[in-house]
Amino acid sequence: MAALLLSAVPLGTTAKEEMERFWNKNIGSNRPLSPHITIYSWSLPMAMSICHRGTGIALSADVGPRKRPEDSPAIPVWSGCPGSYCVVLYGAGSH
């Protein structure tokens, strides 16, 4: 039994060998690391999506932890039609 264990060889490749083969192939072909960043051109929906996410994060960080509506820097100013609610944020950088 000991003779079998001494002469045993792995049947497959190790993870390290696979990674080395992968990186050698990619370095040899001069591929960029992240091609998805460079192939897309900026568009209006993409910019609006990023702004919408940023606004949501800013509002949740500023308005979310408040306990009472009176403590919030958001003031309701106008309700133009049923279902619409306009809010003005004042002092964005002062608190």
From TrEMBL:
To which species is this protein native? Homo sapiens (Human)
Where does it localize? Membrane
Gene3D superfamilies in the record: Single helix bin
Q: What does this protein do?
A: Membrane-anchoring subunit of succinate dehydrogenase (SDH) that is involved in complex II of the mitochondrial electron transport chain and is responsible for transferring electrons from succinate to ubiquinone (coenzyme Q). SDH also oxidizes malate to the non-canonical enol form of oxaloacetate, enol-oxaloacetate. Enol-oxaloacetate, which is a potent inhibitor of the succinate dehydrogenase activity, is further isomerized into keto-oxaloacetate.
Give one Pfam family: Sdh_cyt
Provide GO CC annotations from the record: membrane
Keywords attached to this Swiss-Prot or TrEMBL record, sorted alphabetically, are: Heme, Iron, Membrane, Metal-binding, Transmembrane, Transmembrane helix
Tell me the PANTHER family matching this sequence.
Answer: SUCCINATE DEHYDROGENASE COMPLEX SUBUNIT C (PTHR10978:SF2), SUCCINATE DEHYDROGENASE CYTOCHROME B560 SUBUNIT (PTHR10978)
User: Quick one: a GO biological-process term for this protein?
Assistant: tricarboxylic acid cycle
The subunit structure is: Component of complex II composed of four subunits: the flavoprotein (FP) SDHA, iron-sulfur protein (IP) SDHB, and a cytochrome b560 composed of SDHC and SDHD.
* Pathway entry: Carbohydrate metabolism; tricarboxylic acid cycle
User: Which CDD domains would you find in this protein's record?
Assistant: SQR_TypeC_SdhC
Under Gene Ontology molecular function, one entry of this record is: electron transfer activity
Designated name of the protein: Succinate dehydrogenase cytochrome b560 subunit, mitochondrial
The membrane topology noted for this protein in its Swiss-Prot or TrEMBL record is: Multi-pass membrane protein
* Residue intervals passing through the bilayer: none
Which InterPro entries is this protein grouped with? SQR/QFR_C/D, Succ_DH_cyt_bsu_CS, Succ_DH_cytb556, SuccDH_FuR_B_TM-su
What domain of life? Answer: Eukaryota
Query: Which PROSITE patterns does this UniProt record tie to the protein?
Result: SDH_CYT_1
